[in-house]
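MHS family MFS transporter, pasting as requested.
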Amino acid sequence: MSVPAAPHDAAPPGQPKKAATAAWIGSALEYYDFFIYGSAAALIFPKVFFDESDPATATLLSLATFGVAYAARPVGALFLGHFGDRVGRKKIMVFTLMLMGVSTFLIGCLPTRDQVGTLAPVLLVLCRVLQGISAAGEQASANSMTLEHAPPHRRGFFTSFTLSGTQGGQLLATLVFLPIAALPEEHLLSWGWRVPFWLSVGVAVVGFVIRRKLDETPAFAQQANSEGVVKLPLVVLLREHWADVLRVVAGALVASVSTIFTVWALAYATSDSVGMSRSSMLWVGALANLVALAAIPLWATLSDRIGRRPVFLVGAAGSAGAMFLYLWAISTGSYPLTMVLGIVAFGIVYSAANGVWPAFYGEMFSTRVRLSGMAIGTQIGFAVAGFAVTFAARIAGPDGDDWSAVALFTAALCVPPVIAALSAKETSKLPTEQLGERPRRPAAERETVTA
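Structure tokens follow.
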């Protein structure tokens, strides 16, 4: 006979902080792996894995491999979302971290194009697909874990730790690449670029130790003990929450701001047409992420007070204009101007949307399909955001310097998130157990299985 779980509010006092800390550290370590690929795709891989005789095409193909992981993420979300709502959040969090660590380490071991020819980029794409599958379940499981552990009046603050962890991982990846990028070209292209990828072994070990000690959430345990878990979460999700899934897909397009800032803008600024140094532009990203670490929890705390929708709208609409100014600053060749506007665009304005979406999206779904809803909705949107870099490289023209076209393209991708937020319900004041509630079908018709 199963024992009913304690009500959500009766969870041990230290669990919300423990869950948030595990989410922060795990996400930082996981996205360190994910983002070092972005830096390498912009700066290193065109020369290592592709034909250098056509630099523009090599860069385009390299940036396309960055987007491959985003294409794999919706597929990974279907499987990981399903099992996350069946077996719990904790097991998925451990699995995704280990998969990311292994696939990233293997990238550092790959032979180059000069060594094995076209097999090299094929192997690179396969490893990138594994990274994408891992990332598909990471944020959704970590967000579900923190939201379901958090006090109802502070869900925005606690769930923001997942995203500030993501920014921490991006900052760590940038800082690791700074000394690597400063190496002489010969050492950089032969062995130097491999070092950040090899460090993922430590990432996997540390993350495993942290996450395996985390308790399952009270909300999931109570659902499993009282009603059983859903046999087919996707069926329930699409039947009861299809409109919210579409909102999340549209809202997740705001991640295009991040990929354009992190990858395309870096490649553009260090191209011959602008001529900024690799190290100086990596410092722009590092400082912007450092500011974001402080801005994300502040924006999230504000959303606990005034609601998710207004804060998200500030981030989504503001990013359209802020990114236009940032790319313009790069085109001028002024490093101080680029630094200031980069920090404003990415560190402050974009952080409003980035910091609040974990709670905003998660609160749209009930406990029994929350991980599936967040994983599938975000990963479809993120897939578009990932390939936004490739589209930007096309839009920028043969010389890759039409920054205004890329700015307009980025602004257009910020429109669907604004529409999604305007059409969504405000959920910041609802009790956790009432989130995503829908009229329930008779017990005999529910597609659940006793836990």
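Note for the archive: The radius of gyration is 21 Å.
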